[in-house]
Amino acid sequence: MSLHRTRFTQLKPEDQPVDAIDEWMRWALMNEVAGELPSPRVWQNIQAKIAAHSEATPRPSRARGLWRNLASLLQTYAVGFLAPLEVSLDSRLAPKERSYLLWRENFLLCLMPMIVDGYLLKTAFPH
Amino acid sequence: MALSEDGQLISQIRQGNTLALKALYEKYKVQVYRTALAITRNREAAEDILQDCFLKVYTHADKLDGSVPLSPWLHRVAVNLSYNWLNRNRRWLQPLEEIIDQFVTPHRLSPETALETRELQQVVQDAIVSLPFAHRAVVVLFYLNGFSLNEIAYILDCPVGTVKSRLHYARQSLRRKLERARQLSPEIAYEFA
């Protein structure tokens, strides 16, 4: 009580308590929470959450994710480059068939990397 | 700048010392819990708010200013969490008519002084609860915790003038409600004389 009375004296005249309302408010609030204490499980919960927070595995950094995506991109290019080479070296194919397959592989070689690049870049830079 | 007692504990928490956190928890748990309880009027909510407050101390230890007491910052977090809880639950909006009805209900009126006191306490508490959140928070921080106007301004992140006007409004509002209750129930008229 004395603490509050001291604080009231620090207020300007217009903020000074003018009647018993201040006493009523303080009395009602203090009675409402008097004797109320938090249960011990609150601290136990805090400890458990801190332990879980410390043990959580760190997420891979953005840089590591980017390198992984770039590696996938290079792999895609490598496969795309080697596929027509394999076709051109296959001597069992007839010239007409080889020509068709090379055309198809070249077309895919141009188109597919564009699709894959777009997808991978979007994954690496979502925003 | 020299570190306060809280500041020394905070610097230990930054190094992962949970004993320092426990010391801060023991120091402030009752104050923060009762503030949250007075605002939310719900024990479970108050315990959750207390828990979240100290988890924030642990996770935000790097950002805390160790040269000032922790209490205003803790109460700022507690008030914000209470506001979020009230927004989710909307339990604090109790119509005044309902409060008056409670007060004038025949079974609540009794010649016993003890019962009258309890009824009166209930009327005042309900009148405080019926205040808008911003005013209720000021009332709780000022009357229950004894914070200064400047401290309340920091906790609520508003100018000191706003705190004063909210306090004035809360007093006026409570006075009107108590006057109305007195008219409805002359038996306690002497209590306010």
What features would you describe in this structure?
The complex is a heterodimer of chains A (127) and B (193). Chain A has 127 residues and is mainly alpha-helical. Chain A folds into two domains: 2-55, no CATH class; 62-124. In chain A, 74% of the residues lie in helices and 0% in strands. Chain A has five helices and no strands. Chain A has helices spanning 2-9, 21-33, 41-55, 62-89, 95-124. In chain A, helix 4 (62-89) runs antiparallel to helix 5. The longest helix of chain A has 30 residues, at 95-124. Chain B has 193 residues and is mainly alpha-helical. Chain B folds into two domains: 5-89, RNA polymerase sigma factor, region 2, helix turn helix motif (Rna Polymerase Sigma Factor, Chain: A, Orthogonal Bundle), CATH 1.10.1740.10; 96-192, Arc Repressor Mutant, subunit A, CATH 1.10.10.10. Chain B has ten helices and no strands. The radius of gyration of chain B is 20 Å and the shape is elongated. The interface between A and B is large, with 35 and 41 residues.
Topology:
The complex is a heterodimer of chains A (127) and B (193).
Chain A (H helix, E strand, L loop, with lengths): L1 H8 L11 H13 L7 H15 L6 H28 L5 H30 L3
Helix pairs in contact in A: 4-5
Chain B lengths: L4 H10 L3 H23 L2 H17 L11 H19 L6 H9 L8 H17 L3 H12 L4 H8 L3 H25 L4 H4 L1
Assign a percent range to the helix content of chain B.
over 70%
**What is the overall pLDDT average of chain A?**
71
- Supply the CATH architecture of the largest domain in chain B: Orthogonal Bundle
DSSP helix count of chain A? 5
Largest sheet of chain A: none
Assembly state of the chains shown = heterodimer
The radius of gyration computed from the alpha-carbon positions of chain A, rounded to a whole number of angstroms, is 37 Å
Determine the most extensive contact between two protein chains.
A-B, 35 and 41 residues
